[in-house]
Amino acid sequence: MKKHKLFFIIIIIITAGLVLKNCSCLSKPTDHDADENMLPPLIMIDGTIYKLDTSVKNLQLADKDGTIKNVVNNVIPSMNEQSNFGYIGMEYWRLDDGIIIKMHDNFLKFKKMQIE
């Protein structure tokens, strides 16, 4: 009878170990998983969403058109003068084909996002 109890306990321990090993709730997200869930840098100006296109060097711009007033994390901006990256106070300029954002001393060009 003692051997049966010991055998039964061993089977339960092995089964529990296998269940926990295969449980996805215990696994850590990988960098690959995090990349799939991250949105690209986006801004909303005048009700339009713009997506980061490229960085630009040596720009001579006139007076700024405005500043970013709100920053959200990993969501699509839903208010004017809002971004999902950077910081409050980033300056922006409107162009015929997009928006320029000054982040620290770098200029980033954004193009209108195509809705799919």
Percent range for helical residues?
10-25%
N-to-C series of helices and strands: HHEEEEEEEE
Ends apart, CA distance between termini: 67 Å
> Can you tell me the residue ranges where pLDDT is under 50 for at least 5 consecutive residues?
none
| Averaged pLDDT | 82
Strand-pairing-aware structural class: alpha+beta
Rg on CA atoms, Å: 25 Å
Number of strands: 8
Percent strand: 25-35%
- The order of strands across the largest sheet is 3-6-7-8-2-1-5-4
Q: Total number of helical segments?
A: 2
The major pleated sheet works out as: 8 strands, mixed
Shape: rod-shaped
Number of domains: 2
Give structural notes.
With 116 residues, the protein is of the alpha+beta class. The chain folds into two domains: 31 residues; 74 residues, no CATH class. It contains two helices and eight strands, in the order ααββββββββ. It has an eight-stranded mixed β-sheet, with no helix packed on it.
Q: What is the secondary structure topology, with strand pairs?
A:
Layout: H1 2-22, H2 31-37, E1 42-45, E2 48-56, E3 66-67, E4 70-71, E5 82-83, E6 91-95, E7 98-103, E8 106-112
Parallel strand pairs: 4-5
Antiparallel strand pairs: 1-2, 1-5, 2-8, 3-6, 6-7, 7-8
